[in-house]
Amino acid sequence: MLVLVSYDVSTETSDGRRRLRRVAKICLNYGQRVQKSVFECKVEPMQLETLKNDLLDIINEEEDSLRIYRIVEPLEKNVIEFGKFKAVDFEDTLIV
């Protein structure tokens, strides 16, 4: 399934800046950054639970916010892109 992870981490303190880096690093393990605090992640249901739990272990719910949206198929009808960044198609073969 494709999910969109969006977060806003307070960076007023060094602890907040550390949380921000940790949240981004975890999201990078599951998907690709599409905006500064937004990631598209293709995950299985168990991976989604792990991702959610890992992020909830880091954020401070009194200062930060986290949203996870499930993007339903077909993607062509539910995702419209504008601008220079085009997301990687996870179904295509990637050459590294």
From TrEMBL:
GO molecular function: hydrolase activity
Binding positions for Mg(2+) per the UniProt entry: D8
Keyword Acyltransferase: no
Keyword terms, alphabetized: Antiviral defense, Endonuclease, Hydrolase, Magnesium, Metal-binding, Nuclease
Top-level taxon: Bacteria
CDD domains reported for this sequence: Cas2_I_II_III
The keyword Nucleotide-binding belongs to this UniProt entry's keyword annotation: no
E.C. number(s) listed in UniProt: 3.1.-.-
Cofactors that this protein relies on: Mg(2+)
Assembly and oligomerization: Homodimer, forms a heterotetramer with a Cas1 homodimer.
Function: CRISPR (clustered regularly interspaced short palindromic repeat), is an adaptive immune system that provides protection against mobile genetic elements (viruses, transposable elements and conjugative plasmids). CRISPR clusters contain sequences complementary to antecedent mobile elements and target invading nucleic acids. CRISPR clusters are transcribed and processed into CRISPR RNA (crRNA). Functions as a ssRNA-specific endoribonuclease. Involved in the integration of spacer DNA into the CRISPR cassette.
HAMAP family hit by this protein: Cas2
Family under the similarity heading: Belongs to the CRISPR-associated endoribonuclease Cas2 protein family.
Name used for this protein in its record: CRISPR-associated endoribonuclease Cas2
